[in-house]
Amino acid sequence: MSQEKDENQFQTLIKLDPGQRYRFAIQKFIETEEVWSLAEDQLWAVGQDPMGRQFLPIWPHPDLANRCRTNNWTGYHPR
Fold first, then answer.
1. Residues 32, 23, 37, 68: what is their CA dihedral angle, to the nearest 10 degrees?
2. For residue 69, how far is the Cα from the chain centroid?
3. pTM for this structure?
4. How far is CA 26 from CA 18, 42, 61, in A?
5. Tens digit of pLDDT for each residue in 38-78?
């Protein structure tokens, strides 16, 4: 049942527009005082935007970070 609830919450979250997702993340960072990313050993997952600028993706919960373990990040884990 908890997994179903989590999946419903996730589906609701991804339907928010970018501004609403941003506000949700900032609020969770403040509430939990935690920021999650993906790492493999001493390497952090790094993204790149269409302009070639690199960024460190962050999430407000390890489950959200875990959902992004795809492509080049399959060996990475929330940390």
1. 120
2. 10
3. 0.83
4. 12, 26, 11
5. 999 999 999 999 999 999 999 999 999 999 999 999 999 99
- Encoded tokens for 56: 């460190």
Q: Distance between CA atoms of 46 and 6, rounded to whole angstroms?
A: 26
- Give the torsion sign (CA, 35, 36, 37, 41): positive
At 28, list the tokens.
């969770």
pLDDT for the residue 5: 63
Structure tokens at 16: 């928010």
Answer whether residue 1 shows pLDDT above 60.
no
> Using CA atoms, how far apart are residues 69 and 52, in angstroms rounded to an integer?
21
